[in-house]
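Continuing the batch. This is chain 6 of the set; chains 1 through 5 are on the previous pages. Same settings as before, nothing changed between runs. Recording input and output for traceability.
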Amino acid sequence: MDSGVPFIPPVASREAGPIELLFWVINLVAIVFSIGIVIVIVYLAVKYRRGNRADRSNPPEYNIPIELAWTGIPLLIAIGLFFWSAFVFLYVRRTPAGAAEIYIVGKQWMWKIQHPEGRWEMNELHLPVGKPALLTLTSEDVIHDFFVPAFRIHQDVIPGEYSYISVTPTRVGTYHLFCAQFCGTLHSTMTGTVTVMEPADFQKWLSTGQTAGTMAEVGKSLFIQHGCDGCHGAHTSVRAPKLEGIYGRPVPVQIPRAGVPLDRIQATTVLADDRYVHDSIVLPEKEIAAGYRPIMPTFKNRLTEAEIMELTAYIKSLSNQPAPDNGVPQQPLSPEEYRTRTGFLPNNMKDLSTGTADGTTTTNTTPPPAGASGVGTNQGRTR
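Output for chain 6:
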């Protein structure tokens, strides 16, 4: 839908329509109130100006109906806009079923975009019309902001963390892509394009161009190259956490505290999602797999964010579990799976196997035996 105004971009996504309507309603409310207030100010200024004949005797000190009106009406409008905004926010943040995952890394001053099928692009994003996509974003250096005006979406991109936003394009065309967060001297050059194509044309485009295998295949090569299989491989003699089937499942970890021995720290259950895999590689002592010693080396500044995404894709491929939906685990680990992974069974295994809404439960554990810890890589010493 074109607005007809040059500086207003077209509405080109499922998310853009509700956002656009809410935006104009809020502006309309502001305009109506502003005009009304100006009219009242001008009227009173003219009527009660100096020298004008007006009855100034016995001025009222208060007027209950007027005070209720100028308090109650704006309050009701504000509450209505709040709930409307909340519904729009939830609608936009909810990822449609079957969304294709696309991985985006911001770096001064460019965007690197990786499709799971192996096709990658720089400062360009190609999407099929009518098909939802889940964008997973992170940064190599400073905070960026992924902004596509025609989609009415933007998302902060933070180094060391993953941000998510979904979009369903509804109109074929080419649209602007910007970084909306000041990120350095060449911030204004960190631009690109988003090209929305017919599904058949997109599939043809996806099968051509620069590829080096799927993300999972590249991740497997990195897994071997950096020695991850030395601890986590199928035939290794090193005692390390198993990676098969781990993604999207709750796993027991111990979170170190200063001055507290590891064998005295209770275990807690966290979801093995993108964040967990990422932190296990670059911050291996942040969450230690329960039952293992913290001997995993860090790979911070040794692997790029794009490479960590590829390793994560490989770990996902080892699991039959789907990606977690809004952070809620689909199937908790069984007692047998816990014992296989850790060598012990938490005292409240029944509670853990039931799981909780947020996927976290605190448990007592037996002292962890010697071994490697976590999910990660390198020369036979990995997490």
